[in-house]
Amino acid sequence: MKRGKLFRLLCAIFLTLILVAMPLTASCAKPASKSEPVVLSAISFLPQQHMDKFGMWWLRDRVAERSEGQLTIEYKGGPETIPIFEQFGAVQKGVVDIVMGLSGTYARQLPEVNALNLTELAPWELRESGFYDHLVERHKELGVFYLGWPMSQVPWYTYTKFPVNTIDDFKGKKIIRTTDQGNEFVKALGAQLLRPKIAELYTSLERGVADGLMYPVSAPDIKLEEVVTHVVDHPFYIRNSLVWLVNLDTWNGLSKDNQDLLIDVMKGMERDAEARDTGRIAGYIKIMKDAGLKFVKLPPADAKRFIDLAYDTEWEKLKSRLGPEDYEKVRKLVIK
After folding, report:
1. 296: part of which helix (H) or strand (E)?
2. Residues 245, 147: one domain?
3. Any residues with CB less than 8 A from the CB of 154 and at least 6 apart, and which?
4. pTM (whole model) above 0.85
5. Within a domain: residue 295?
6. 7-28: per-residue pLDDT in tens?
């Protein structure tokens, strides 16, 4: 009798253990499900047809590949979606997650970004010098994470509809600038400053509203070689002001792995863009020369004054906005 009770008790215990183990076994047998993909919205300072040249697809495709589809960049449009001078505010307020924009559009709020145009250092050298970290902290104060600075080697040229033989030929002329940087340079040349939207550059020159403009070597991207006749062959602001920014709340909401992935992809883009841009510059110049544009050199003394004005006016403006102490700190981080 006792043996029968003991046997029934052991059977009950064994059955209980089987019932408890079954759901655990079933759950272990299932493959671990991946988390939902993270989708980040992005805009750019140029229309979609130019994005292949400016890195938006680089970031989108490299991030998608590296994350195996778990982190996605969704392009929402260019200045036709959000005007260029409103894009910093859009990423700042979280209207979009990422902007590929121009630092000059928000330089009044963060003056030291203008040093990106004035430096001779490559993006990775600025990471080593400490200027990258400086910009990260300063951008955070405005609710934005500074991701990086690819496609940096894009010099600015001066394009005109009139012959340029001396620096005095700019006096009284109407010259376009598209960002805050270079405004004082235009005025120092004795020219009148114009600030139309990027979409209006072509028509402003075509209709004679403007006599010339200062713009990157990539002018053929928007067919500007069709509406100017001369190029002053003294490039300046060799380092471009294209920057990638992320809304700070969006950035803080990303996993550490996704943050590291974005930073690592950006570092790779900075290196690759530097190598690519060397060939692209030569290509743009060939397009303009083939279109019949005359590349002109100023007399040596005028050429020196021209370049000195381009940089000295910007350094002075930066000093007045930062104050002497911060100015010296920034200058040491960006000058060889």
Report:
1. strand 294-296
2. yes
3. 216, 217, 218, 239, 240, 242, 277, 281
4. no
5. yes
6. 455 444 444 444 444 443 333 3
